[in-house]
Amino acid sequence: MPRMKFTTNAVLGTVVAMSLVFSTLGVAAAHTVRQAKGTLVICDFFPSSPANTPERVAELKAATAWGAKNGYAVQEPVPPSAGCNGQLTAGAKAGKAADINLMPDDQEGTMWGDKLIAPISLKTSDYVKSGINGVTNNGKIFGVPWALETMMIYYNPKLVPASVFKNATWDSLAKWSAAFAKSHSGDYGLAWQWDNFYYSYTFLTGYGGGIFGRNSKGYDKSKVLLDSAGSIKGLEYLKHIIDESGTPVNAFLGNSGNSNYPALFQQGRLAMVFDGPWSDQQWRTAHISYGVAAPPKFPSGKYGYPFLGVQTLVVNKYSAHLKAAESLAVYLSQHAAVDLFNASGRIPAYKPALKQVANNREVKQYEQAFKHTQAMPNIPEMDSYVWTPAGAAFTSYFTGKETADAALKTAAAAIRKSIASNG
Predict the structure, then answer these.
(1) How far apart are CA 400 and CA 266, in angstroms?
(2) Three-state DSSP class for residue 177
(3) Does the pLDDT of residue 22 top 80, yes or no?
(4) Looking at the predicted structure, is the pLDDT value of residue 25 above 50?
(5) pLDDT-derived band of residue 36, with 50, 70 and 90 as boundaries?
(6) Residue 409: how many CA atoms within 13 Å on its side-chain side?
(7) Looking at the predicted structure, is the pLDDT value of residue 20 above 80?
């Protein structure tokens, strides 16, 4: 899934002389927890730089505490060259993959479909319902939810008065953005990476569109909605908002667009961005003052439904230490949750941890936003067949190569073809 995913060298001491050396690995990192009876490997997607990234420090603080209680040690492993998920897919059956992986729920669905992850015994009442839904496949739990995330409006309070968000609609934000850009030459009011399908998905749902329909068991791969009338109208409405905002389309497309909007926001040249908690760390690291607001309504007076993403810990089905791996995964979801929230802004899925941060102003805004979200489809077809053609459709439309109708029909046809070809 194309959310922003970002070891480094650090040493941690524990009661049993634990130590850790982070190793650089593109977008993924692995680290090892050693026990007299064997070795457990945890693999995550946290940033590879700067050194001692807050997320990994938080994760390993809990991991080493668990290790101290259970006689485990922590040391540097050989990083997976294919990344955590690639390593799990290629090496699980041969015993050459991590025992625990951190991944979003759509990728968890893929690993479940490939029969690579083990069912988990979990006290579900300890976790928020949407988190449990994100790790449930075919009626069984195949992961531990540790955080929730969705799209929000991040804004610079020095540039944007809070009153802008009172009874706001996308049209009113676009109008404010245009006025801001007009009075601040060279600056922008509202922007994000327009053709990032994950980011902009909410516009399809604002008019009744989506990706997959549902049946009594959940998402139905045979009901592709990407080229429905609602999806087409929603994509056209997004283009309308961009045009009305006074923000140029081409400056915020693709990889360059994904780099431009964070840089401009940090420079104080962009007043508002539509983003998620994975960006919190960079705002905090840059000492940016920011506010957070739930997404506004559509002209109909209704809300759109951005994805509700669930970050999960999954256990390799072929691990030689399934029970130990499960124990550590559950422990991390509970004892690292608050520190991970402080490090990255991701909202805890573990209820007691969520209660600890409940008075945080950002959490309150997220809880408001969570009321109007749509669960990320965690069927295998989502991660395998949707992201690439859907993202390409948005790019094709915004660059003028195709109409919204044609672009989404091309993407939907590709998805249906992949599903038909692969069962």
Answers:
(1) 30
(2) helix
(3) no
(4) no
(5) low
(6) 6
(7) no
* Dist. CA 278–CA 161, nearest whole Å: 24
Q: Which amino acid, 225? A: L
d(CA 76, CA 92): 19
Long-range contacts, 281-285 (Cβ 8 Å, 24+): 281/47, 281/53, 281/54, 281/55, 281/343, 281/344, 281/345, 283/154, 285/50
% of the chain at pLDDT higher than 90 = 72
- Name which of 285, 222, 232 is nearest 6 in CA terms: 285
Token pair for 201: 């998905």
Distance separating the N- and C-terminal Cα atoms of the chain:
21
Contacts of 161 (CB under 8 A, 6+ apart): none
In angstroms, the CA 189 to CA 175 distance is: 9
Identify the helix (H) or strand (E) that includes residue 366: helix 361-370
Closest CA relative to residue 21, chosen from 45, 56, 65: 56
117 vs 248: CA distance, rounded Å: 44
DSSP secondary structure, 64-100, as one string: HHHHHHHTEEEE--PPPTTHHHHHHHHHTTTT-S-SE
Beta strand pairing call for 212-215 and 307-315: unpaired
Q: Which residues partner with 308 through β-bridges?
A: 375
